[in-house]
Amino acid sequence: SPVPTVFTPLTIRGLTLQNRFAVSPMCMYSANNGHLTDFHLVHLGQYALHGTPLTIVEATAVTPNGRISPEDSGLWQDSQIAPLKRVTDFIHSQGQKVGIQLAHAGRKASTLAPWHYRTLGKEVATEELGGWPDNLWAPSPIPWAEGFPTPKEMTLAQIQDLIQAWKSAASRAVKAGVDLIEIHGAHGYLLTEFLSPITNQRTDQYGGAPFPNRIRLLLEIITAIRSVIPPSMPLFLRISATEWMSHSSQSWDLAQSKKLASLVADLGVDLLDVSSGGNNPDQKIEAHPYYQIDLASEIREHLRKEGKKMLIGAVGMVTSAEMARDVVQGEEGDETVEVVDGEHGTKARADLVLVARQYLREPEFVLKVAAELGVGVRLPLQYSRAPFPKKKKG
Ligand code: FNR
């Protein structure tokens, strides 16, 4: 029987991935003043050793005040290039690819790593704990929740500086040898805060009710980054397709995400990584295994109708071989569908499967899926005496 689509190569601009899995970006709260450490080298390197074609480095702050926690990764200064290059060099030595997610945490910056807030019983990283609660940026001075610091409404000059910071961080990522860049526009961090009418109550050209104002900063950042990265380099964008606030009168929703998707496709975004939520403590999510993948699928469908070639990444609750296969394969018996270079097939829900938590449980997740689906995957030469067994069919 033919190889499942999930194990066929995917070409995005000048980059070809061996198959259609990716490690979704995950903050590890283990950086040293924004510099990646040995922890990251081993943690990220293990995925390349185990057949993952693309590993995306965690949310990496473009300015120091854009870190979620004091221990977040950053690319705001040149000294942060070398430790990232160690990671990219290692992953490349295994014949695999590496991306990085660039981010600014906005009003959700300056919090403590989860294990610290569990022991200390508070989430805000105060100054004594290495935080910067008095220097948070947001579109409007609205705190995340009670007990959290009130962010500063960004001035127009700060917005210009921020665009420059994204651009410089992208240049540094290129110098460090990454194969692609993902813009973090999801989960209630700064760019989401600009997109949502709940968190963006500005009255200038970057805000308020009009949709073109709320998306302006994101579009400008996309253009700025595209201008400094090689034309052959893919650019991904992660968004929260809905903020799950349909119970409030106005919020960011799937309809606006579809509109945004069409626009960013024309600005050179190659893959939209569809996540959701994170902008409001009182979001109402009805989670089920496909709850986010369905959002991805709807946006993909919309793009196909509009004749746009942007690819779609699906993420969320993928834990089994069947699910990983079905996300890009579509329905059983639909094995003729080819998804290459943005030519969308008819049934697949997405083009790339991003996985986070299952990779923490099983760094060899892609090998397990391959074994279960009866497909071979290239292993490091060093491991070749112990090939991963294929599961017997039937
Ligand atoms: C995350 N997630 C995340 N998302 C993101 O866009 N940037 C990030 O840096 C992080 N950091 C992070 C850390 C940890 C420890 C977890 C578990 C998650 C979200 C993640 O990428 C993914 O979207 C969700 O976890 C849903 O996918 P899974 O875990 O169901 O496969």
UniProtKB/TrEMBL annotation:
SUPFAM superfamilies: FMN-linked oxidoreductases. InterPro entries: Aldolase_TIM (IPR013785), OxRdtase_FMN_N (IPR001155), YqjM-like (IPR044152). Coiled coil: none annotated. GO terms for molecular function: FMN binding; NADP binding; NADPH dehydrogenase activity. Residues 6-372 form the NADH:flavin oxidoreductase/NADH oxidase N-terminal domain. This is NADPH dehydrogenase. It comes from Triangularia verruculosa.
